[in-house]
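re: ur question from yesterday

yeah so i grabbed the chain u mentioned. its 238 aa long if i counted rite. heres the sequnce exactly as i have it in my notes:
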Amino acid sequence: MLSEDSDNESIHQLTINEHFAKAFEYRKEREELQKLKDKYGSDVDEGEEDEEDSEDAESEDEDGEELTPAVDAAILRTLARIKRKDPEIYEQGMDVFEEEIKKTGKHKLSKRADKDKSKPLTFRQHALASALNPTSRSPSPEPLTHIEEQKALRNETITAFHTAVDIEDDEDDLLVPREKTKDELERQDEEYRDFLQREVGEDLSTLITIEDNGVLDEPAQREEEEPKEKKKKRDKKA
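ran it thru and got these structure tokens back, copy pasting raw so excuse formatting
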């Protein structure tokens, strides 16, 4: 009898560990992928096919930014069900985390406005077009001699080249990521806290404590650290 109870307990513990491991393995993979993106960035693509691939990658990055908080919520909901010993987690073939992660498509932290699918005209293209193609509103020029045509073409080419170089430098400056202001960071943290509290519910307070500065603190870790701090204070007094 005791052996059967022990076997059942072992099976239950193994099942819990499987759900727990899947949740954190998924999160770990996403973190490693994000580290690689932060370190190496996106490849510089050229050509139509590469531009399409770049657009697809940008779309995936944006989806990833929106889904990350939802994945966090899915992990926390999974842990909450494990902590509550939800009967469903012991059902054979049941994947609790997979069930929770499927909800991420329905719950996102924010929605981005649909982007215009047409490709915008770049600064360089606009400059070249303006320099090399006269506008239709311009009055019809008088016929030029061959020498005048050659001279005008040479001047237009030089002007277009210098304009393109100057604007290319401006483009490089514009591509530098803008650092978020303190207010923007605080608003982002507040949205993240509200999102987790809404999606995880009352179970959130039993799993983590969200500090005002946006730091996620695990209660178990905090309980372990408090006695250590008290001990240090006693040692200092002694």
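noticed a couple things. The chain has a mean pLDDT of 61. also The longest strand covers residues 209-210.
anyway ttyl
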